[in-house]
Specification:
The protein is of the alpha/beta class and 467 residues long. It has a single domain (2-294, 366-466), classed as Amidase signature (AS) enzymes. It contains 15 helices and 13 strands. A hairpin with a 2-residue loop joins strand 7 (216-217) and strand 8 (220-221). Helix 6 packs antiparallel against helix 7, helix 6 packs antiparallel against helix 15 and helix 7 packs across helix 15. The longest helix is centred in the last third of the chain and has 25 residues, at 361-385. The structure holds glutamine. Belongs to the amidase family. GatA subfamily. It catalyses: L-glutamyl-tRNA(Gln) + L-glutamine + ATP + H2O = L-glutaminyl-tRNA(Gln) + L-glutamate + ADP + phosphate + H(+). One of its GO terms (biological process) is translation.
Length: 467
Amino acid sequence: VSALDAAEARADLNAFLHIDRDLTLAQAHAADKLLASGQDAPALAGVPIAHKDVFVTRGWRSTAGSKMLANYVSPFDATVVERLHEAGAVSLGKLNCDEFAMGSGNENSAFGPARNPWDTSTIPGGSSGGSAAAVAAGLVMAATGTDTGGSVRQPAALCGVSGIKPTYGTVSRFGMIAYGSSLDQAGPIARHAQDLLDILDPISGFDPRDSTSLEHCNGSANVPGRIRSQYEQALQAQEAGGSLPLKGLRIGVPKEFVNDKLDADVAKAVQAALQAFEALGAVRVEVSLPRTELSIPTYYVIAPAEASSNLSRYDGVRYGHRAAQYGDLAEMTSRSRTEAFGPEVLRRIMVGTYVLSHGYYDAYYLQAQRVRHMIADDFQRAFADHCDVIMGPVTPTTAKHIGDNREDPVAEWLADIYTLGVSLAGLPAMSVPCGFGGAQGRLPIGLQIIGNYFHEGQLLAVAHRYQ
Ligand code: GLN
C-alpha cells in the first residue's frame, strides 16, 4: 500500500500511465501468503516492480504510449510479465514511454512526457523514460524496459540508474508490442548490477512462442540461471585478483566515440570511470569501430522499415482506435490511423514504406542490411583482436530540457550515435552511472559497457566491481 501511495504521490513525474490498486494488492497478498507459508518463497516475492507500457498485461491497459491503443486491454500477459509474476514480483502498474518506443526522450508519448526526477524540467530519456524515472525516484526496485536502439541504456544514463540490454534472442519478445522486430529486446532498469541480475536472469530463457528466441547461447542452454551462474563465476575469478580484481581485463575504447558531438562533461566523466577501472587492474586499449557514424542512417532505414510493417496491423478493424466518421473502408483505415498515430510514428511509417517500396528497396533497405553486417563485423574484430569489453558514453549530453528538440526531430536521431551500433549487431550492453554534469553539474551521466554475444553475466560482474 505504501509503495502504491508513493507512486501516486509522484504524479508530477508522469511516470505511471495506469495504476490499479486492486490488481496490485491482489498480487501483494498472494506474495505475502507465500512468504508467511514457511515454504521456499520465490526469489522476488513481494518486490515492487512495474512494466513499460509496451508489455501486454492482463488487467492493466497496454497502450504503448499511443492513442491508437488508449483503451486496449490484452487477454494475456507477455512472457516477461508472466515470468516476473511467477518469481513473486508485485507490479505497481504500467509505465510511460515514447509512442511505440519511437524516441530517445519520452517526449513522443501520447500521454505527455515523463519527467526526470533529478530536474523535472528535463527529459528522463527514452523510450523507456517512465521506467528509468520510476526507479530513480525510488518508486520501484526495478522496471522493465525495451531497447531497440538504446531505449534501456539512454534513460538509465540520463536518470542516474543502471540498465542492461541483453543479446538479441535471450529474452522472449512474446507479448511485447513490436517496433523493429529484428532489434527489439527487453531489459531491466534498476539501481545497480545486482538488482539488474535479479530481474534479467528470471526473464531470460527460450520461449517457443517467440520464433527469434534462442534455444542455445554459445553452446549452453538459454534458460534462467545461465546469466546468474556466469555472473557468479566471473565474481569468483575477480576474487582471485585481490586488490586488483579486474587484472587482465582489456577495455576497448573506440576512437570514433570521441567526436565533436560529445559534451566535455560527459567525456570527462567517462574518462574518470576508465581511470577507476584501470585502478582496479584493467588495461585500456584503443579500438576502432569505423562505421560508428553509419549506424545512424543504417538504423533509421531498418527500424522504420520494420515499424511500417509491424504497425500495419492497426487498421481500426481488429483492434485499435477507429475513426467515428468515414465513408468507405479505405477511408476508415486512413482516418483512424491519421487520428491516432502521433507525428513521429507517422514520420517513421512514411520513411519505412518508402525504403521498402519497389524501386527503392535495393538502394535503401538492402544497402542498409549490408552495412548492418559490416557494423557487426567491426565489433567482432575488436573483440577477437583487442579487448574483452568495450566502454564509452551512452549519450552525447546530459538530459535536455523538455521541448528542446521540438523543432528538429533529426537532432534526436543523431544523439543515438553511441547506442545504435550495438543494437544493429545484436550485442549485449549496459549503462551504469559514472558522474554528473549539465548546467549546475547536477544531471547524471552514464557509462556504456558493451560485451560480446551472451556475456551478460560478465558485464554485470564488471559493473558490480565498479559500483
Ligand atoms: N531512439 C531510437 C528510436 O527512436 C531507439 C528507441 C528504442 O530503442 N526503442 O528508434
